[in-house]
Design goal:
The protein is α/β, with parallel strands linked by helices and 326 residues long. It is 38% helix and 26% strand. It contains 11 helices and 14 strands. Helix 4 crosses helix 5, helix 4 runs parallel beside helix 6 and helix 5 packs across helix 6.
Length: 326
């Protein structure tokens, strides 16, 4: 109780805290396993990216913000609302997890409408909010098609539509770019920027550092459950040592042809076929130039790209470089 009064007094003295996500000495343990430890963090309005390798604590931090997890100690407040008040928190927060699964047989419209009805909205309210959410993510033309027939990018958009359908102030997105092809990835980043321009407070986790740099106002760097750095980041990959190229796995129908096309420019330093011969490992020291070149190759229509994703081992090398540079 003393903690609550102290935090309330802090918010009165500093009104900006009531418009931020605040972690006050927060730790979360799963039995004896550390999730996050001693996190003191204030996340202001804008787009904030959580960066770190698997196991760093990104998803734990997000689940604490949404109230899906309770801290072992400390307190989390989202725009002034403690996360142990679920009904108030629901009005503030939308959450889009990384899991790409849906109830069978539903259309996009039915999926969002059912979520709103279960959440307590009347039929008329749910109908109006569903229409608005679908329009916001440019999915109205496909709203009455079965989600099972959607592309990867369309499934991502319908999940985004669900997460904003109840008109929250905060949108939390766990690995929202994972597995998307280059064109859809660029469209999704543009959509996030539009959400932020509309006043939404975005928290995004990502493995892809150059895209974090492109879309984020600030970055929180996590390592083994600790926040090791935070703040604005510009040109992170430009500062990378040449000994740490980024490795990317591209799933496509013609990896050998893609390798030939990509080696026509200087962005690629190494290319290797995946063992199943349906993927290509690429190493590049210039991710921005590489992605631009990849977009050009895909636009020619010769190669069908299924997904583009960084490889964890090389992300680890990049991450170690960043930690070492602090």
């Amino acid at each position: 109780m003393v903690q609550d009064q102290s935090n309330s007094q802090s918010e009165i003295r500093n009104p900006k805290l009531a418009q931020a996500i605040v972690f006050d000495n927060v730790s979360k343990f799963y039995g004896e396993i550390l999730g996050v430890n001693r996190v003191n963090l204030t996340i202001p309005l804008g787009i904030t990216s959580l960066v770190g390798p698997n196991g760093a604590g990104k998803t734990t931090l997000m689940n604490l913000m949404t109230g899906l997890l309770r801290p072992s100690r400390g307190q989390v407040k989202v725009l002034g609302v403690p996360t142990d008040q679920p009904e108030q928190l629901f009005r503030k927060v939308g959450y889009c997890s990384q899991f790409d699964s849906f109830p069978g047989g539903l259309t996009g419209r039915e999926f969002i409408n059912a979520f709103l009805r279960v959440s307590g909205f009347s039929r008329n309210q749910a109908d109006g909010l569903t229409e608005s959410a679908l329009e916001r993510v440019d999915l109205l033309p496909a709203a009455d098609r079965k989600i099972g027939a959607y592309s990867k990018g369309m499934r991502q958009r319908v999940r985004l539509a669900q997460s904003i359908a109840h008109q929250p102030s905060v949108l939390i997105l766990d690995e929202p770019l994972n597995g998307l092809d280059p064109m859809v990835r660029a469209e999704t980043i543009a959509l996030f920027r539009q959400f932020a321009a509309d006043g939404l407070h975005l928290i995004i986790s990502s493995h892809i550092l150059h895209e974090v740099d492109m879309m984020s106002d600030r970055v929180v760097l996590l390592n083994n459950g600790y926040v090791v750095a935070e703040g604005a980041v510009h040109g992170v990959r430009d500062e990378m040592d040449v000994e740490h190229p980024m490795q990317i796995l591209i799933r496509c129908d013609q990896p050998s042809l893609l390798a030939a096309r990509m080696f026509q420019n200087d962005e690629v330093v190494e290319a290797r076929l995946h063992d199943d011969r349906h993927g290509l490992f690429i190493k590049t020291r210039n991710p921005d130039g590489f992605y631009l070149r990849l977009n050009e190759v895909v636009a020619l229509g010769e190669i069908e790209v299924e997904s583009v994703a960084p490889v964890d081992d090389d992300l680890g090398a990049v991450y170690e470089y960043l930690i070492g540079s602090e």
